# Entry
Amino acid sequence: MKKPFNQNFTIGILGGGQLGRMLIQSGIDYNLIFSVLDPDPDAPCKNLSDFHVGKLTEYETVMKFGLACDIVTIEIENVNTQALRDLATGGKRVYPQPNVIELIQDKRKQKTFYHESGIPTAEFVLTDTKADVQQHHQFLPAVHKLGKEGYDGRGVQRIRTASDLDKAFDAPGVLERMIDFEKEISVIVARNESGEVKTYPPVEMVFHPAHNLVEYLFSPAQINNSIRAEADSIACKIADELKIVGILAVEMFLTREGKVLVNEIAPRPHNSGHQTIEANVTSQYEQHLRSILGLPLGETEIVMPSAMVNLLGEPGFTGPARYQGFEEVVKVSGVHVHLYGKRNTKPFRKMGHVTIVDHDINALKEKAEFVKRTLKVIA
# Structure
């Protein structure tokens, strides 16, 4: 007989942003205790946990924080992995594992991993300098990505013609063949300590054309069963190859020829899984906690079709946030607003999200468009 479940342990989260906030909100149902480290004294998690201010990339800071926790997890990849390795060697449970985080911190290593593991992805070339990129004009149109420290659309340049080559980064990166895709989809996959794996049905994402941030998504993705099965299989293969413990988001392109190609992966709760809070049997946040605690994974079925709209700071507004159109939106049936506790807005800052659920797909899309038009974050 297994030991009874108890809550006499502390889960440390590196990063105190909205993902950590929603993870804590989910953990409250299990009466879990959290400690959070973040460089921002006003981070969204500050009032929800034992909160510490410090750099996530500083070895001594991460070590000191981790030694006071029983389990350490992340909500952002830009963390000191040497400290996490040493914590794991010393007996702390660190999930996702430091080697997985290190792989995903470097897009060059990511792409090489896909190639070596037989994971379908866009054709690519590893580059070291801007001059190196300029030697590959025959590879265009392409996308140039910084190897490290690109996040939320930063560190990505579209290079369509030779005249764009000057936009390339003068740092180690990846030059990827530009994909003529029909849709961008995402599969969230979870794997626990015993190797149990479960996936969520694929969702369909729509990105902001200039800022490379998800504007909204629909669940389930409007794809056929064979594409759905292929995307699911790819996500499971990646999780098993990495032997990850926790949640993994797998972003993919569906090409116009019907091929599924992996774009990027993220070893944490993800923007493409926010709607699972209302729309799936088990949210991605509860699933991540189940994974790192060694619990059985929850069911992932869709309870109701959903859409998720990101609330981004409006262009031209910087300062204390105000939410124009809030009352009009919350009176609509099936609308659930999540605000992230960020005091100040700035252009395109993620300030919250809205999940909409409806059995009728057309009504769902109409409500999503209404939310996009109506709810604005201003100052």
